[in-house]
From TrEMBL:
SUPFAM superfamilies: Homocysteine S-methyltransferase (SSF82282)
Binding site for Zn(2+): 223, 285-286
Residues passing through the membrane, by range: none
Record GO biological process: methionine biosynthetic process; methylation; S-methylmethionine cycle
Cofactor(s) annotated in UniProt: Zn(2+)
Protein name: S-methylmethionine:homocysteine methyltransferase
MF terms (GO), sorted A to Z: S-adenosylmethionine-homocysteine S-methyltransferase activity; zinc ion binding
Gene it is expressed from: mmuM
Length: 301
């Protein structure tokens, strides 16, 4: 892990004449390296226990051709670490560490962007709530909960904040308010079910919260079925902002068996359709591995 000063972030710009390749499932690759992530902290636990493994996974995705490393901060929060007896100062240090680990991998690769993952409130509950939304909290309450983490990550040296796997419009609005007040670049990515957010709102309404927020540099979807990507690109494109898509492999999580089941459907052929429809940043989420990203990079760049 780097002991030097925090790197100054670089303006994150989606180029008009090429496709940016994002990384895949960091947690998936950590599990493939033998780590048990059944803990409520998920991959964020390794910020404490095995930070060098996180850097190794970022490096693997860079070698595969990814241009973006997404930090292992998705499930990291002050509340979650407090439940382990970890204080606010140390938690802030762990959030910063997530960016430093990605920066170490970028230094090895000699290129790339760092996206600081900002997972939804539901992820911190560790009960699947991020796939339902509607937590019973107001926009103001969600804003208050997210603010401390965003303030740390915004100051940690990442190039862009990845507000990802957002299940409903209320939480997106809270994040838009924060991003605007902090003045940092971010993308907004919903998890969807068909043509709606997981909470059931039409995507046209969901993306409208990014209107008039210049700090939002891309909008799109992630952590969804590959088949749900194409219908989401039109509503996302209507914002006039670049479109980012990074779905799961297509396998389905069976909570009773605690295992992924069914066939994978993520493919470079589907990704080519997404690009033709207007996607400018393409990657993967759960169960998408460096080999998959390598195929995307070979086919799309």
């Amino acid at each position: 892990m780097s002991d030097g000063p925090t790197l100054k972030p670089v303006d994150f710009v989606v180029p008009e004449d090429t496709v940016l390749i994002a990384d895949g499932g960091v947690a998936t690759e950590l599990e493939a390296r033998g780590h048990d992530l059944s803990d409520a902290l998920w991959s964020a636990r390794l910020l404490l226990d095995a930070p060098q493994e996180i850097t190794a996974v970022h490096a693997a995705f860079f070698r595969a051709g990814a241009a973006i490393a997404t930090t292992a901060s998705y499930q990291a929060s002050f509340d979650a670490f407090a439940a382990r007896g970890i204080g606010r100062t140390e938690t802030a240090g762990l959030l910063r560490r997530s960016v430093e680990l990605a920066a170490d991998a970028r230094a090895q690769a000699g290129r790339g962007w760092i996206a600081a993952s900002v997972g939804p409130y539901g992820a911190a509950l560790a009960d699947g709530s991020e796939y339902r939304g509607r937590y019973g909290l107001s926009v103001a309450q969600l804003e208050a909960w997210h603010r401390p983490r965003l303030e740390v990550l915004a100051d940690a040296g990442a190039d862009v904040l990845a507000c990802e796997t957002i299940p409903d419009v209320d939480e997106a609005q809270a994040l838009m308010n924060l991003v605007r007040s902090l003045g940092v670049p971010a993308w907004l990515s919903y998890t969807v079910d068909g043509a709606c957010t997981r909470a059931g709102q039409p995507l046209a309404d969901a993306y409208a919260v990014a209107d008039g927020v210049p700090e939002i540099v891309a909008v799109g979807v992630n952590c969804c079925a590959p088949a749900d990507v194409l219908p989401a690109i039109g509503p996302a494109s209507a914002t006039g902002k670049p479109v980012i898509v990074y779905p799961n492999s297509g396998e389905r999580w069976d909570p009773a068996r605690r295992a992924w089941v069914g066939p994978a459907s993520f493919s470079q052929q589907l990704a080519a359709q997404w690009v033709s429809a207007g996607a400018r940043v393409v990657g993967g989420c759960c169960r998408v591995r460096p080999a998959d990203i390598a195929q995307l990079a070979a086919a799309l760049t």
